[in-house]
Amino acid sequence: MGAERQPPVELRSLIGHRDSVAAAAPLEDVHRRFAETGRDFLAVLDGERLLGVCSRRDIAMRLGARFGFALYARRPVSEHLVPAALSITESTPIPEALQSVAARADAYFYDDVLLVDERGGFLGLILVHALVRLQTGLLLGNISALEASRQEIAEKNRSMEEDLLMAREVQLAMLPSAADDDPSRAWRFESFYAPAGGVSGDFFQLIRISDTAAGVLVCDVMGHGVRSAFVTAMLRAFVEDLQPLALDPGALLTRLNQGLMGVLRQSGNLLFVTAAYVVIDTAASTLRYGQAGHPTGFLLRASGGVGLLPVDDDIAGPALGLIPDVPYTYGSAPFGGGDTAILFTDGVSEARNAAGDEWGQDRLRDDIARRGPAAGPGLLPAIVESARAFAGTREFDDDICLVSLTSRPAAG
Questions:
Q1: Beta-strand (E) ranges in 311-385?
Q2: How far apart are CA 278 and CA 293, in angstroms?
Q3: Model pTM score
Q4: Averaged over 251-270, what is the pLDDT?
Q5: Domain 11-126 has CATH 3.40.50.10800
Q6: Domain extents for the chain?
């Protein structure tokens, strides 16, 4: 049974305040207005026409500078608007609103968001932490849990950090695990996931195609924090919609790239996602693999040999979100009983010791070969322990993500 559909959320319900000042108001009066309201941002109106927003911090710095008060106290606030203020209409779909916030430059990411009607009339200002709360709730994928969680957070007035910690817990809960492994399936899925802190930019998704076929996607979103979490939420939604393409890594990556390009092209900043996707079909004894700017995974044979997954210059496409209309493709290889495909993000291979030396993909490959198929379900945790031993620390600087798909040997 699928998750319940979430009812629409009205952007008006997220308005934090409607405080404003007249465009002709002198900075001295606006500074006093900030003190009275306790706001960080105020809308600036010329009559009923919305001009933009002004910032408490910017005006305080302007008036507090040497000779600043004498020079600027009587200047109109319309000359001191925040550049690149984000304005969205009340009819904007929630996913588009979240995508617009995620696309903002770092310097303006936490600024209040202007909400306007269809004619551009001022409705109010939305605090960005309200949108972060909403994104956290969307990750839950369950309306009752979403509303209960959001109401609890609002009632207790939790801080932004607590919201982010909840988002981290939700991300972990939403990831697939091997806990529900079904021995009747001809394949076995395993994972190891350890975010470095807060919400993570690493993402993986298991696609259960049939009892004899499955795919697993691993992604690494550029950067960390709230912005990366926004993108992982979009990736999850995209992957669920692309399940009909699960047997074709090239087609799935191509459609993922198109989806990301559609929502990220409005951003003036560089933002991309590396990805690798492997699908095994135990009935046909084949493996298919495609990648997009991601470290190449490994194929551990039942015999103990370790090699790279099938990828060459024609197959290794660029990271997702960089180039529109890239036709991704895939490579294939025989995949027999006891064979294992292993994917990972660069947090594992780029672990460094005190001397600054990198563990690297060669050491990772050697560690897989040394442990071999005999390691069974303990292989991924053992790999991480080797990386920790090399780095001399229990904690990593980057998110750690490893996944594997194994073809169960035929009985008898």
A1: 316-317, 331-334, 340-344
A2: 14
A3: 0.58
A4: 82
A5: no
A6: 11-126, 135-168, 180-407
